[in-house]
Write a structure and sequence with these properties.
It contains 3 helices and 2 strands. It is α+β, with helices and mostly antiparallel strands and 97 residues long. A two-stranded antiparallel ribbon has the order 1-2. Helix content is 43%, strand content 14%. It folds into 2 domains: 59 residues, no CATH class; 36 residues, no CATH class. The longest helix has 15 residues.
Length: 97
Amino acid sequence: MTINITDISKAQKLVPSTGKNPVSHKGKATPDQTTSMDKVTITETATKLKHALKSLSDGQVVDSKRVDQIKHAIDDGRYKIDTLKIANQLIRFEKEL
């Protein structure tokens, strides 16, 4: 079964489906008349990923001007790496997962 999640905006959505029950019950609903509800849950991470992919498709992926500035700064020895900032961002990222 294929599920289209591109238009889902809420965390949960109920989708009706028909159940196929191989056992015949006299006087009760036939397999074709039996319906059940499947529950589909979209995680917050999946929602963030959807928005990130949309953002990437909307604009330029690489800022060439910024890349050139960083290259020149590295060549000139002016590029400083803030290891504490990088460590804090890695920790924040890991907590979001």
